[in-house]
Inverse folding.
């Protein structure tokens, strides 16, 4: 008996009432307006209605591609700068988050001390950082091809007090 | 107008929604635990780096703390596990939505917003509106049709609006810029390096990608057969991107599944599995006969 019932049910359609349809239409229209407005005039702060701008910037065919990293010193080897991973498991923040705050970091390099503190909490067994600096590597590109030339500059530096 | 409404509420199988929900909730668990963990580590970042988004200002969301990220991470995983049972679909579904969205907020409010995860919000928010749906429910429903259509629309809007963003932020010159070169220089895999040696490849690829994104909405006007082919082509594109620069828009890939007859695939798999099992149990003389 039951099996017959399911067989019959295959063509069954469950309809929605007018109010149920009405609010769904309103929701879709609302979402459409927010997503379109976000793409038209919004910015990242509008998330989840921010513009979908992955890889949307134009890169000049000839110029330089830059990449930011950090270098640190530990008490074991004072005076020696060693590159450290600029990753969330290591410092709580990722590369893009640091790249976006370069002006603030340059204005107040003591901010970099918080990265050393986060590192100490996240990696308690690793040697503590006594100094940290942000470096930017410029990779020169000519006619869409990297030339192999790399320039490095130091943007900001912090030392443990 | 009424044709548009009929299209928005085209009855679709409840079983399809049930399967899509299972995939969505499984994805949430994988995502929170392993794929996207920058929010988790923000619990240890100094609040000086916190930069509230509009959503955080409106809702007065605090900077991350270890307690907050622990609560969000495990709360979302537990809610998703509970939602996988299919019970209380609205309550549990929306609990997952709140947890996942807040966890993304924590990830994005430290200066870097990922631009590929917003459409998933639509899936999490609207799939619960269907109410109870069982994986073997043969009924079709307008509520199911609406939820699937909304997910499809959001997924396709992602492509179209990202083409729009390229025009807005990169200008019409985007297609002739060295954006892909930059991507491969910064994060290219070993098997993508040859692309830099043959510069026209990436240049040409930008034209193809931009055209495909701008014309993505055409998918809704295609026959069912071609619609599935186009979805397949998008999956190939995403696989190639992953191979070249290890970037995949994971939540978006789950959303694209809303175009596929998931309940039919599940039935096919179940049948194969049953046949494989019965073969395993078959006695030797029977096998000798065949």
């Amino acid at each position: 008996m039951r099996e017959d019932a399911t067989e019959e049910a295959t063509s069954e359609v469950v309809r929605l009432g007018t109010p149920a349809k009405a609010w769904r239409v309103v929701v879709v229209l609302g979402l459409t307006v927010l997503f379109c407005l976000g793409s038209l005039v919004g910015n990242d702060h509008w998330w989840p209605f921010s513009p979908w701008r992955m890889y949307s910037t134009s890169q000049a065919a000839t110029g330089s591609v830059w990449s930011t990293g950090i270098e640190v010193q530990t008490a074991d080897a004072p005076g020696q700068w060693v590159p450290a991973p600029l990753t969330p498991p290591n410092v709580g923040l990722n590369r893009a988050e640091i790249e976006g705050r370069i002006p603030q970091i340059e204005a107040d390099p003591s901010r970099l001390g918080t990265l050393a503190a986060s590192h100490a909490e996240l990696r308690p067994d690793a040697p503590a950082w006594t100094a940290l600096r942000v470096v930017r590597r410029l990779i020169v590109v000519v006619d869409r091809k990297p030339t192999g030339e790399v320039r490095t500059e130091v943007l900001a530096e912090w030392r443990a007090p | 107008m009424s044709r548009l409404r009929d299209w928005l509420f085209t009855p679709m199988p409840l079983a399809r929604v049930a399967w899509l929900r299972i995939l969505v909730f499984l994805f949430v668990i994988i995502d929170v635990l392993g794929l996207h963990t920058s929010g988790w580590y923000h619990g240890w970042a100094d609040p000086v780096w916190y930069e509230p988004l509009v959503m955080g200002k409106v809702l007065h969301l605090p900077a991350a703390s270890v307690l907050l990220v622990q609560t969000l991470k495990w709360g979302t995983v537990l809610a998703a596990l509970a939602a996988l049972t299919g019970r209380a679909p609205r309550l549990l579904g929306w609990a997952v939505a709140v947890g996942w969205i807040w966890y993304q907020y924590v990830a994005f409010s430290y200066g870097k917003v990922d631009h590929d995860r917003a459409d998933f919000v639509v899936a999490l928010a609207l799939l619960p509106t269907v109410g109870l749906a069982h994986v073997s429910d043969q009924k079709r429903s307008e509520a199911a049709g609406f939820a699937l259509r909304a997910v499809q629309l959001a997924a396709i809007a992602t492509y179209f609006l990202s083409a729009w963003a390229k025009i807005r932020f990169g200008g019409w010159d985007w297609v002739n810029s060295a954006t892909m070169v930059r991507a491969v220089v910064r994060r290219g895999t070993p098997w993508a390096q040859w692309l830099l040696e043959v510069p026209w490849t990436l240049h040409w690829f930008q034209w193809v990608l931009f055209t495909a994104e701008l014309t993505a909405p055409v998918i809704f006007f295609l026959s069912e057969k071609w619609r599935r082919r186009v979805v397949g082509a998008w999956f190939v594109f995403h696989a190639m991107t992953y191979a070249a620069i290890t970037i995949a828009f994971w939540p978006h890939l789950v959303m694209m599944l809303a175009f596929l007859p998931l309940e039919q695939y599940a039935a096919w798999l179940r049948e194969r599995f049953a046949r494989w099992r019965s073969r395993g149990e078959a006695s030797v003389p029977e096998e000798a006969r065949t």
Q: What stands out?
A: The helical segments of chain A are 2-9, 18-41, 88-91, 95-99, 102-107, 112-122. Residues 1-9 of chain A have pLDDT under 50 and may be disordered. Chain A is about 35% helix and 30% strand. The two ends of chain A are 82 Å apart (CA to CA).
